[in-house]
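Entry type: protein chain
Record version: 2
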Amino acid sequence: MRIGMEMNHHLAGDKGCLQRIRQDFLNQNDRLSYFNLFQYIEHDMKIKMNSWEKDSLEGRLDRLGFAFIEFNEFNEFCMEFGINFGEELVETDLEDMLDQKINTSYMDYKLSKDDYLNEIPSILKSEKAALARVHQIWTTQKFKESQG
């Protein structure tokens, strides 16, 4: 991606910009708006972006459509182009946690009180939680039947 290569070229000569970007993420709980990021890219780094490039960058940095960019995703993108914030990637960011939840089978899903609507165990908040509960009931019933 052209933007990443140009960012690397600019930031290699302007470590202060890198520090300002990181500080902005820190000031906003490790999140940054598209607007703020594009301000850095277009005004500080003087990189002209077409609208399709902005859309592409948004899609890459915010796959889940949160309308903000997490630092971890931005750091991962930057690493691909040799831009180093000196921080390791965190594998427990929002995107990773959501991916893990989505990719967990109902048979492996562990029900918790967070799955109950208004703390009522018979009313569950998600289809996956409901399927997990039905699977528990079915397994218990089959076990009882096998015991006689």
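Comment: The first strand starts at residue 31 and ends at 32.
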